[in-house]
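Why does this matter for the project? Reviewers at the last site visit asked to see concrete outputs rather than summary tables. In response, this paragraph embeds two records directly. Each consists of the residue sequence and, immediately after it, the corresponding structure tokens. Nothing has been edited or filtered.
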Amino acid sequence: MARTKEFDPDAALQSALELFWRQGYEGTSMADLVGHLGIGRASIYATFGNKHELYLKALDRYNENRDPGLLGELSRPGPALPAVRAVVRRFAAEAGSGEHRADGCFVTNTAAELGTRDPAAARRVEASWSHIETLLHSALVRAQAQGELPAGRDPRALARMLLVLMQGLRVVGKASDEPGRVRDAAEQALRLLD
């Protein structure tokens, strides 16, 4: 007869996500995971695979639960440019003083730590960034169609600029005790939308 799991895999995955988010991939050992999750190494391997597979599952979980309000904010009927500005300002505020400021963004942390040397992680990072870029691009296309954004502006290039800015805000916000730095950078970038 098969044994039943004596732990909640969903809760364990969430706990692993939080540990990886705080300590990074390289900074988290299997011993750390065993201690933090409170389950044996064999159970971790049997349920999630090796440390790398668990990390990727945690990154997938993070991406699945990423900012659920972003789509709603950027696709709300009416003027689109105020919504884009509000999203960028929210990212700046969260980067400068949010609940996870010291931890940064798990996706951004993954990009900085693993870069392109881990193709599976890089694909997940790219998917996350493409999602945000697409939402921004759609809002900026709408803004242009509604006359909020001058006709000569390139919505795709602006969306990419804002994506890069928002990721940079997260990096600087994580490392800096000066929230004005990220706020000022966001405000200067938003002037490019005028």
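We now turn to the second protein, recorded in exactly the same manner.
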Amino acid sequence: MNPQPSSTAETADDEAVDHARGEIVRVGTSLFARGYVHASAGNISAKVGDHHLTTPTDAALGFLEPDRLALVDARGEQVAGDRASKTLTLHRRICAADPTARFVVHTHSTHLVALTLAGVWSDDDVLPPITPYYVMKVGHVPLVPYHRPGDPRVADLVTAHIADRAASRTPIRAVLLDRLGPVVWGPDAATALAVLEELEETARLWLLTDRRPEPLAEHALDELRSTFNAAW
């Protein structure tokens, strides 16, 4: 049975929630159509005021129904929709740790999961900075050691990475969960999607070239920092 709406739901702006529903469905459909997700793997959420809207547990992202998306209030209590994804706690913690994060996407993207199986470049940077757009659009991506899906300890590890990188003035936009895939975020759907796409395609490129390309030279990285304010 779906949760009944409560008075706390009144603090979520209906128009904003409807817009977020449309964005989540649009992104899920796009990711599925292009092979970034399969079956019921992955989840998407959007922060709307002090509420969170998320895909239901075990939902197929290519076939989402707007009215069945789960709406959760500021206290973490579900007020509408089907049962929320088990990773919502991680999404909510990311948004709390990074004030710019309002749209979060987790996928089991093939090449990024393959990267964790084959061996990442380093635990602090799963991929080397081999292209300028990887540096500009993605930045540093740390590896989070394997934990079972939905393990609450993952949120502690991810938020610690966010805090550490913010302190070093190289804020992150993504992490890679060992054997489970990437979690990316941004201020809106378009930004988060761009990070995911660039991250997955760079993993594909690096694996296709047998992990042989050298990173960009330091002078090239300096130029990207000074010209485009790249966080590297």
